[in-house]
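Exam revision sheet. Question 4 asks you to relate a sequence to its structure. Input first:
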Amino acid sequence: MHLTGTELFAPDLLTIGTAYLFLLYGHAGACIFAVGQGFFIDLYSGGMHGLFTFLYLIVFCGIWTGSRFFNLQSPKGQIVIVSLAMLSKKVFLFIMLTAFSQGTFFSMSFWWACIGSLLSTGLIAPVLIYLLDHLRAVVFKVTYETSKDQL
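Answer key, structure tokens:
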């Protein structure tokens, strides 16, 4: 695998989405989203059954544990929590693939891609969470104005 830019800095939007749903709806909504998303990825992928369900459950557990020690509502906390959740996902991916796939070889480019994905996901998380909050506020404002006009 040769890294040509797009593979190196590919943020995991599902991890950021899980963190946003944890912030918005709490642990129940985020857990349901994480398990459901992992299930659908497992359903449409040709890999080990249950791998992505387990990994996104690990992401949820990382966000839940990180939110106990850091503030998910601050940008610093979002960077730290999302980065730690991504780190736990990558570590458990390595453990699961090493344990259950015989002859798996991890090249140096794989590790560079993991580090790049971890950093890009952590750094872009506050921006995307801000944009999703702003979009949510705009949708609520437009909905309120249209319902007020109908009365």
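Marking note for examiners. The chain has one domain: 13-150.
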